[in-house]
Amino acid sequence: MVAQNSRRDLLTASLILTLSLFPITEANSEGDALHTFRQSLSDPDNVLQSWDSTLVNPCTWFHITCNQHNQVTRLDLGNSNLSGHLVPELEKLEHLQYLELYKNKIQGTIPSELANLKSLISLDLYNNNLTGKIPSSLGKLKSLVFLRLNENRLTGPIPRELTAISSLKVVNVSGNDLCGTIPVEGPFEHIPLQNFENNLRLEGPELMGLASYDTNCT
């Protein structure tokens, strides 16, 4: 009986230790992702000075907001004079709700891996130097409310996968080099046309069945 109780106590202690280490492991994963992102950026104004990769928890860093479980929920780096590029590792911020990187000088493409941020509410990348296509995988962001990609150098059609995001309330892709037609289905029915302007090859609104959605894209 004593041996059985000792074995039970040992298993209980092991379980407690495992559970107590879990938030630290998760914080390390998020910290590693943010450190990788920092390494990809040029930061002349030292706004990322507090991002110390030796700290276990990134919740102590400036411009980072966490929930009560020490999980990163906001990344607020708008108008911070940053240049560089986005990194696929940002997908490790599994509880991220707000990705605010507007009014910087970030270039390169939008990683398709951002579609794995299942809790994302706001994706604000406007006023940067982003190129390439809007990833169709962003249609998986079923909690997304705000999608602002205006004033970049994005090309290609507006992915029709975005029309399946019922939560989407604000879309702005003006001031790019998008082509094709403007969607009219789902949430796009209520998006004002000015949010698509200054895309010289973009036509619309789409006339269902009369024009290919990727017209002018060749």
From TrEMBL:
InterPro entries: LRR_dom_sf (IPR032675), LRR_N_plant-typ (IPR013210), LRR_R13L4/SHOC2-like (IPR055414). Pfam families: LRR_14, LRRNT_2. It comes from the Eukaryota. Residues 75-173 form the Disease resistance R13L4/SHOC-2-like LRR domain. Keywords: Leucine-rich repeat, Repeat, Signal. The keyword Signal applies. Transmembrane segments: none annotated. The keyword Signal applies. Residues 28-67 form the Leucine-rich repeat-containing N-terminal plant-type domain. Residues 1-27 form the signal peptide. This is Leucine-rich repeat protein 2. It comes from Cardamine amara subsp. amara.
